[in-house]
């Protein structure tokens, strides 16, 4: 599989990502968790939660970009859970197994809803939220899927066809079209079934203890599978949240507009007090080995060597550390800009 946009393997694309970042798998109780955990362990993590149509892999552009700047990013697959209470308990156990007490969460679509549900019921563990193309309640989705009781017996191709009905038809620009293809082809039937159930189980987000100032709402302005009415409802719930508007990007802007998304995530993390440790990031090599003399002297423990904080070993990658050098230090309390060019100007001014 090529990276979104095609072309040969190079830093930032999917082929290169898979060659240097290990996929971890751990079983916690009856749940299998697949995840990527990359970046200095001393930095509070940003946990990325995908929507119905997504796995941990869909955030590979965020992992490569932010980790090279000294942030820690954990991208997860939502395991096969079938109701929201099961999600809350399972995610909490996952964080416990990683010895992670506090998180910042970036959730897209269903992932944003699950992030809010977790923040509502485990308020002490969530320090900030970035919510993208998401919603507060599932009633509309439940009404639109009356056949949900038989979802477990529905063939995979029908589930994917149903999923695609929510994605805009017609010609797309190349990067948006590639993002749709990338996401849809990574789905398995069982995972898709459980996520569809999470999306249609009737529930709504209650009050959050988290201040609006620690929430960023990042939406695309062209179209998405989430109805505009539900997006507006989310904005009304968090009137003091920061807004990051992408003029285009479709349902998966983290793939189709990664530069803008990564910049907004970086601005959010800076604003909520997460300091990157670019001094602990020294170099990716093509074979995935570390290129940091400092970290070798220090034992190389600033990045993940074990595949998990509690000794869980990942699969699909080397046990060596991987790092990349990128020194960028800046702060910003200004309103989030609405274009990459303007945002880069803001960053240069505050460096």
CATH architecture: 3-Layer(aba) Sandwich
Structural class: alpha/beta
The outline comes out as globular
Q: How far apart, in Å, are the first and last alpha carbons?
A: 38 Å
- What is the subunit arrangement here? single chain
Query: Any idea of the CATH topology?
Result: Rossmann fold
Strand order of the largest sheet: 1-2-4-3-5-6-7-8
Instruction: Please name the fourth-level CATH homologous superfamily.
Output: Alpha/Beta hydrolase fold, catalytic domain
Low-confidence stretches: 1-10, 285-351
GO cellular component, one term: cytoplasm
Main location: cytoplasm
Keywords: Cytoplasm
InterPro entries: AB_hydrolase_1, AB_hydrolase_fold, Maspardin
Summed up:
With 351 residues, this protein is of the alpha/beta class. It has 13 helices and eight strands. Residues 44-145 form the AB hydrolase-1 domain.
């Amino acid at each position: 599989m090529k990276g979104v946009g095609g072309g040969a393997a190079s830093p930032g694309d999917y082929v290169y990502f898979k060659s240097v970042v290990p996929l971890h798998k751990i079983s916690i109780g009856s749940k299998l968790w697949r995840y990527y955990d990359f970046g200095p362990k001393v930095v509070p993590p940003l946990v990325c939660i995908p929507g119905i149509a997504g796995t941990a892999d869909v955030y590979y552009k965020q992992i490569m970009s932010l980790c090279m700047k000294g942030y820690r990013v954990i991208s997860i697959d939502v395991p096969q859970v079938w109701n929201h209470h099961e999600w809350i308990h399972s995610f909490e156990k996952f964080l416990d197994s990683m010895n992670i007490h506090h998180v910042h969460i970036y959730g897209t679509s269903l992932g944003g809803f699950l992030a809010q549900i977790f923040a509502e019921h485990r308020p002490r563990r969530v320090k900030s939220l970035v919510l993208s193309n998401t919603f507060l309640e599932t009633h509309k989705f439940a009404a639109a899927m009356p056949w949900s009781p038989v979802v477990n017996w529905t063939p995979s191709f029908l589930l994917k066809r149903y999923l695609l009905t929510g994605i805009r038809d017609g010609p797309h620009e190349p990067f948006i079209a590639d993002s749709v293809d990338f996401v849809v082809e990574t789905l398995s039937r069982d995972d898709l079934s459980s996520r569809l159930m999470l999306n249609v189980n009737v529930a709504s987000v209650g009050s959050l203890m988290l201040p609006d100032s620690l929430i960023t709402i990042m939406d695309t302005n062209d179209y998405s599978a989430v109805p505009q009415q539900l997006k507006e409802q989310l904005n009304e719930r968090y009137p003091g949240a920061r807004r990051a508007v992408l003029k285009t990007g479709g349902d998966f802007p983290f793939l189709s507009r990664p530069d803008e998304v990564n910049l907004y995530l970086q601005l959010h993390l800076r604003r909520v007090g997460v300091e990157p440790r670019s001094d602990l990031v020294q170099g990716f090599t093509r074979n995935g080995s570390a290129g940091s003399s400092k970290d070798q002297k220090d034992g190389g423990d600033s990045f993940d060597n074990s595949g998990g904080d509690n000794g869980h070993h990942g699969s699909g990658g080397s046990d060596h550390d991987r790092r990349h050098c990128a020194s960028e230090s800046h702060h910003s309390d200004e309103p989030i800009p609405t274009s990459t060019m303007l945002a880069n100007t803001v960053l240069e001014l505050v460096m």
